[in-house]
Each structure stands twice: as C-alpha cells, then as structure tokens.
TrEMBL record:
<dbReference type="InterPro" id="IPR011047">
    <property type="entry name" value="Quinoprotein_ADH-like_sf"/>
</dbReference>
<dbReference type="InterPro" id="IPR015943">
    <property type="entry name" value="WD40/YVTN_repeat-like_dom_sf"/>
</dbReference>
<dbReference type="InterPro" id="IPR051200">
    <property type="entry name" value="Host-pathogen_enzymatic-act"/>
</dbReference>
<feature type="domain" description="Pyrrolo-quinoline quinone repeat">
    <location>
        <begin position="213"/>
        <end position="428"/>
    </location>
</feature>
<protein>
    <submittedName>
        <fullName>Outer membrane protein assembly factor BamB</fullName>
    </submittedName>
</protein>
<dbReference type="Pfam" id="PF13360">
    <property type="entry name" value="PQQ_2"/>
</dbReference>
<dbReference type="InterPro" id="IPR002372">
    <property type="entry name" value="PQQ_rpt_dom"/>
</dbReference>
<keyword id="KW-0732">Signal</keyword>
<feature type="signal peptide">
    <location>
        <begin position="1"/>
        <end position="24"/>
    </location>
</feature>
Length: 667
C-alpha cells in the first residue's frame, strides 16, 4: 500500500514532491568548513511534508464527506462509497475573522447541506450537496478558537461546542439566528462533544469532566454525570445518552437516572456510535481494536482487530447489517465485515484526495544521508544524496525525534508512546508507553552513558503533574518520575551525560484546565544515577512556561513561552541568571560549533545566536511549525535545515555574515 501511495502522490505533485537533478540536495557541500557570505543564502526544496489527514467526517446518501487537517485552505471532499473514490472537492475560504482555517473537527448533515465547524478560527461553513457551493455562515470567536463539535437536532437546528469559552451556540440555518447558552461550568474551556434531540442538547466538557444536558427551550443546564476524565464523544439511542471519557463509557438515561459505567481494560474510547438496534460500536485508542456494547453489558465485546492499527477513529457508521464504515484520522476509510471480522482500508490520497502541505511536527538530520520530517501520522524522508522522497505511516504525531545508532526514536502524541524507526528498512515498532496520563510528550533525548531514552511530558487535561520518563530502548522498560517538578509539566530537557545529570524545564499550567498552584516555571537538575532531584530554582519570577532549555559551557540557556520571547542564561554553579533579554518569540534552542542558536515563532520567524546578547541571524522563516521551530545544522558548516513557510529549506546562518531577510517560500 505504501508503494502505491508514494506512486499516487508522486503522480499528483511531481513538481512539489521530487527534487530535480539540478536542485538535488548538496550533500558534499554539507561538510565544508565555512560558507562565504556570498554563497547561496537559502535553497528551498518544496513541501516538507504532505498529508491526507482528516478531522471531521459525515455520511449521507451513499457518500462520505471528510474535511482535511493541516493544509491551507482545508478541503472538504466527497467520497463515493460504492466506487471508493473521491468524486468532488471544495475548499473552505477564509472568513472575515483574522486568520485562516486549517481544518474542521466538527461536521453535521441536515437539509441537504454538510456543515463544518473550523479551527483555528471558530467559524461555521456550509457545503451544498446539490450544487457544491461553499458559504461562510458565522464566526463564534477570534483566531485561536475551535468549533470542536457540531450536531443537528431533528428540526435541523445546529449546535456547536466551542473552545476556549467552553460554550454551546445554537444556529438556525433558515434564519441565521444565533443563541449563546453561556458558560456551562465555571472555568471550562472545551465543549468537546455535542448531541441533540427534539428537547435537549447534550454536551461533553473536557476540563471539568462532566456530561451535561441543556434544555433547548429555556437554556437550563443539568449535570447528568461526572467522569474520570474529559468527556470527548457522545452518542444517543432512544432514552439513553452514551458518552466516552477516556477508557470509560457512561450510559445514562436522559433524565439522569440509571447511570451505568463500563471501562476498557486498556486504552481510551474513540468514536462511539449507537446503531438503530441500540448496539454501540467503538474503537480503542491507541491500538484501534473494534468493540461493541449494549446497555446492561458489564464489559465490552471485541468485534475485530484494528482495521487501522495505531490510528485515531474520527467516526463510525453502520452501512448495513453486516458492515461498519470507519474514518481514520491519518486519512483513510475502512470497511469492516461484522460476520468475519475482516476489513479493508483505502488511503484517501490513493482514492483521489489532493495532497496538501501541512505544518511540521518535528525534524531530524542524519548527516550526509537523510532528513526525517514528522507530520500528522506520517514520516517523510528526503535522501540527501539523491533528492528522492518517500513517506510511511507512524501511529500519531512525532513531537520530537532522536537518533540512537541505526534507529530513530520518536515521542508520539496523542498515545504518549515511544516508537522506533529503522534507518535501513523504515520498519516502525512500538517501544513503550509513558503511562500515568502522560499523553503529550514534548522532548526526547538519548543518553549514551546509560543507553536510555529520556522523555519530558505533560499530562492531558486538567492535571498539573508532568513527568520525566526513562525508557530502555531494547526492553521497553519504563521508569516514570511523575511530578518531578511539583505541580508542573515538563516542556524540555537537556542532558549533561558526562555528569549524569538531566536538566528539566517546567510549565506551571500543566495539561491546562485547572488553576496553577505556582506562579513561576522552574528549572530542576535530576541525577540519573541516584534518580533524584538535586536542586530546583525559579530563574525569573512570574514567567510561567519554559519552551526550551539547553546546557552549554556551564550555562543553562532557556527560552520562555510565557512570557513569550524572554530568554536567559543561568549559571549552573551559582544558579543565578547572568544574561537575559528578549527575542521575537518562543521556539527551540540548539548548540552547534560551540555556539547557542534559537529559532522562534513571531516576528516573521527569526533565527538568533545567543551569547552576551541576542544576535539576529535571519528573519522571514515564517510561523508554520506545528510544534517548535527548529534548526538542524550540518556538521562542520553554517548551513542548517529548517522551514521557510511550509517548505523545506537549507539556510546559511553564519554568525559572521549580515542578517538574512528571507523572501517568502515560492517567491
């Protein structure tokens, strides 16, 4: 399937996905000792990673409708379920609010139209099934918001669950009238799921972990159930509401009585869907196994192995008595035969979905050999010797990458898993799960002295306690140090392997959704031999979040996210700040040839050298990284691999040269 996918993508975008011989990556030049200031400053190589990933999905009258994730503008695609081909596409244009949509988690079908709620501008669009016309209908907030969920009541009225206000909005298609039901729970930010019937709207709250009911006529809010974690999906059948909260399925009558709870042995619940006979089908994350449940069951019954292993399920729909249709977040559809348990998978790129350029999650340079670029459930590899590209699936978003011998290790969201990738075969294998609710890994490093992987992570949801996890890459054994910096998650780590110490950078906000107990982000030194914290300090009072830290020559350099752009150099001997300043924004640090560099968001996308002060090296890289802007220097030169916009670029960052002003990608 991967070979067919590569062929399909290459056929669709030859100019974008193949590096011509005349512009092949200059591997030999990578080892030059110095680039003159007159040498080419910037070379671009097309999209860093392309995707067919989807978020929202719906089914109507023999057609599936999916909305892409990541590319600008997002695409809504119509799939003929008989031929299993994409037969029509349209783009979602920019609305009047600042910023452009990148996808639509929320979809609903009513009145001959598909409705889409978007992010990171929380807007509502319609797609007319008969004419293909797309219209922008309404904005529910400013740039940085989400329409997380969308449901149509039997009369066609739409209900949208939003972020960051934690509100449900009502939209009447016939008149365009909008009603705001207000704050559903004090301090709530996410209405992650909604469902509606003739009388009520049902909402799943992520931060406060509650299932609530809203009376449509009066707006009265009633709590139906509390949950062990955030409520992420809701389905209705008859007089019952069924809601997924982590690994627990809440099954309760619509009046709040007869509450039942059933829990997966392992993992969390994805995409529960109630069928006409009351059977609820669902998948488990991260493995993707399909289960069924009926009211009265005390456990889930396995139906089939994963049709899309390691993937996210966006929606499940019953096509007929014997067939389930599933939507995989990485960009695929699967058909499951309920009688035999066998399944078929169709990649949407192979089915005709136009590939879109996405924002990059992570990057790793294997010098003179290859560049690895992490996207959404995909890894793209560019051969630096030939310019050839290839891509393969991975089970999630690789938030950070590190090399150990002939393997690359990735820390993956949302599963909180560490995976390995063989440099020779591209074989992907699971190594370990972080566990303890640590689903948001931010940083991974390899300690050659102990031969262990070190992962810094944050929890998901209303939890302040992050973790340092020590992973044995051969056995998968995990040692977890939860709350290693009290009431802070970990955003970054930096290893001094010679001293056996790893330094940790904290964030007082944790997973978000619960008030912090501390006001200043800490730096802690952790002894890898004794497995204990040696010391902890808050370098700058009131600065709440480190984005990255890096140790070099007895100093710990740090870049803050809150306050954005503040940077420091901390003397490790005295634990005092000896240098500090402000740069355009936050991002990632790297040490190369005895110097410290920073690549940051804001200001058009800037690169700096940090010393006694910050020296601007380049501007115009853009703000298109999904995680942290990164620089990956070639050994022995001042050339670094990075992004210009969403294009892969090789940039001269010689500190002795004048600052670069990089033109926009493609200009």
């Amino acid at each position: 399937m991967l070979r067919r996918l590569l062929a399909a993508v290459a056929g669709l975008l030859p100019a974008l996905l193949t590096v011509p011989a005349a512009t092949a990556v200059p591997a030999a030049a990578a080892t030059t000792t110095r680039a003159a200031c007159t040498d080419p400053a910037v070379q671009t190589y097309g999209p860093a990673t392309v995707t067919g990933a989807i978020v929202g999905a719906a089914v109507h009258d023999g057609r599936a409708y999916v909305v892409t994730r990541g590319p600008k503008p997002p695409v809504i695609a119509e799939v003929d379920l008989g031929t299993r081909k994409v037969i029509r596409t349209a783009t979602l244009p920019d609305g009047p609010a600042e910023g452009a949509p990148e996808g639509g988690w929320a979809t609903a079908v009513t009145g001959g139209k598909v409705y889409v709620g978007t992010y990171p501008v929380p807007d509502l669009y319609s797609f007319d099934i008969a004419t293909g016309e797309v219209k922008h209908l309404r904005s529910f907030g400013r740039n940085g918001g989400f329409v997380w969920s969308l449901a149509a009541a039997p009369d066609g009225t739409l209900y949208a669950g939003t972020y960051p206000g934690g509100r449900v909005f009502e939209y009447v298609p016939a008149t365009g009238a909008v009603r705001d039901f207000g704050v559903l729970a004090q301090g709530e930010r996410y209405v992650r799921a909604v469902a509606a019937d003739a009388t009520y709207v049902y909402a799943g709250l992520l931060d406060k972990a509650k299932l609530v009911r809203i009376e449509r006529a009066t707006g009265k809010v009633t709590e139906l159930a509390s949950a062990p974690t955030g409520v992420g999906a809701i389905t209705l059948h008859g007089e019952r509401v069924l809601a997924a909260a982590g690994g627990e399925l809440i099954d309760v009558r619509k009046d709040g009585s007869d509450l039942r709870r059933t829990t997966l042995v392992e993992g969390s619940i994805d995409a529960p869907a109630a069928m006409e006979d009351g059977t609820v089908y669902l998948t488990s994350r991260p493995d993707g196994t399909v289960y069924r449940y009926r009211t009265g069951d005390t456990a889930f019954t396995k139906v089939a192995d994963a049709p899309a292993p390691g993937d996210e399920s966006r929606r499940i729909h019953q096509l007929d008595a014997d067939t389930l249709l599933g939507f995989a977040g990485s960009g695929g559809l699967w058909w499951l035969d309920l009688r035999s348990g066998t399944s078929q998978f169709v990649d949407l790129l192979e089915a005709g979905l136009p590939p879109g350029t996405e924002r990059v999650q992570s990057m790793l340079l294997v010098p003179n050999r290859a560049l690895y670029v992490g996207g959404h459930f995909v890894m793209e590899v560019r051969d630096l010797r030939t310019g050839d590209k290839r891509r393969f699936r991975v089970p999630g978003e690789p938030k950070d990458l590190v090399r150990r011998g002939e393997k690359i290790y990735a820390a993956v969201y949302p599963s909180g898993q560490v995976i390995s990738i063989d440099l020779h075969t591209d074989e992907v294998r699971g190594v370990a799960f972080l566990g303890h609710g640590q689903q948001r890994p931010w940083d991974i490093e390899y300690d050659p002295v102990t031969d262990k992987l070190l992962v810094a992570s944050a929890p998901l949801g209303a939890n302040l306690k992050g973790a340092l996890t020590v992973v044995d890459p051969d056995t998968g054994a995990v040692d977890s140090y939860v709350d290693v910096i009290p009431d802070q998650s970990l955003m970054s780590l930096s290893l001094d392997s010679g001293r056996g110490v790893v330094y940790l950078g904290g964030d007082v906000l944790g997973g978000g959704g619960t008030p912090p107990t501390r006001t200043s982000a800490s730096v802690a030194a952790f002894d890898l031999r004794a497995r204990k914290v040696l010391w902890s300090v808050d370098p700058v009072p009131g600065h709440r979040t480190f984005q990255d830290i890096k140790v070099h020559n007895g100093l710990l350099y740090g870049v803050y996210k809150r306050e954005s752009g503040a940077w420091i150099a901390l003397d490790l001997a005295t634990r005092k700040v000896v240098r500090q300043g402000t740069i355009a924004g936050y991002g990632e640090l790297t040490v190369h040839r005895g110097r410290v560099f920073a690549s940051v968001f804001r200001g058009g996308g800037n690169a700096y050298q940090l010393g006694t002060e910050a020296k601007l090296l380049a501007t115009g890289l853009g703000d298109e990284w999904y995680t942290n802007p990164q620089l990956h220097f070639e050994p022995g030169s001042w050339y670094a691999w990075a992004l210009v916009g969403r294009e892969l670029a090789r940039i001269r960052l010689d500190p002795s040269c004048p600052p670069l002003t990089i033109p926009p990608a493609g200009s």
